[in-house]
Specification:
about 60 residues; alpha+beta; 3-stranded antiparallel beta sheet; 2 helices; elongated
């Protein structure tokens, strides 16, 4: 997926992920959603911030 098409990045944790103390990173574009499942919470937060920053930078360069 092109980085400049990313519209939203969210962190989610259903009951099983919460039990394992993990998070899922959901990456959304206008037409699709991709998910990175079962990552540690600090890694998930880092991924979210990094993806958002890269997407913003790609949009600013366009």
């Amino acid at each position: 997926m092109p980085i400049n098409r990313i519209q939203n990045v969210t962190l989610e944790a259903g009951p099983l992920l919460q039990w394992q103390q993990l998070k899922a990173v959901s990456i959304e574009t206008a037409s699709t959603t991709h998910e990175i499942e079962a990552v540690l919470p600090h890694t998930a937060e880092h991924l979210k911030q990094q993806i958002i920053a890269l997407a913003q930078e790609a949009r600013d360069d366009a």
